[in-house]
Amino acid sequence: MTRALHILPALALLATALPATAADRSTPEQAKALVEEAVALLKAKGPDAAAAAFNDRKGSFVRQDLYVFVFDAATGRYVASGANPTLTGTDATDLADAEGKPVVQSMIAATKDRPSAFVEYVWLNRSINKVEHKHSFVVREGNYLVGSGYYTD
């Protein structure tokens, strides 16, 4: 029993050095809630103020491995990206995932006849620098696609 007690502090120290686990990942419910908050802000404050909030990497729309992204559904351009604000204004129409799936076109198609959808693709998880499966919850609000995604691998 004494030997086991000496191992516990070492295990606790080791645990702090391990990478994030599945328990640290965001859930579909958290992604959906973040998008709903983002849509509410977009409606209340308009696209310019909302985009500024979404692009703030230290703001309330970037949480753990979740961040808000917004595309203009008519042009396919980024309106905001909490992961990389420098993408704002760039054309994402032909943006494809690691397997060649057209991401933005899939999101536009998925929300063409309904207000929201989950879209699956393969994306770089920046928190662990690994390509993984990602599911994004996307809402069409006017001409905007507002989304956030969670990783499943």
Describe this structure in a few short sentences.
The protein is of the alpha+beta class and 153 residues long. It has helices at residues 2-17, 28-45, 47-55, 103-110, and strands at 62-63, 66-67, 69-72, 78-81, 116-125, 130-141, 144-151. β6 and β7 (144-151) form a beta hairpin.
List the helices and strands and how they pair.
Elements: H1 2-17, H2 28-45, H3 47-55, E1 62-63, E2 66-67, E3 69-72, E4 78-81, H4 103-110, E5 116-125, E6 130-141, E7 144-151
Antiparallel strand pairs: 1-2, 3-4, 3-7, 5-6, 6-7
Helix pairs in contact: 2-3
Structure commentary:
- The chain is built from four helices and seven strands; from the N terminus they run αααββββαβββ.
- By secondary structure, the chain is α+β, with helices and mostly antiparallel strands.
- It has a single domain (22-151), classed as Beta-Lactamase (2-Layer Sandwich).
- It starts with a helix and ends with a strand.
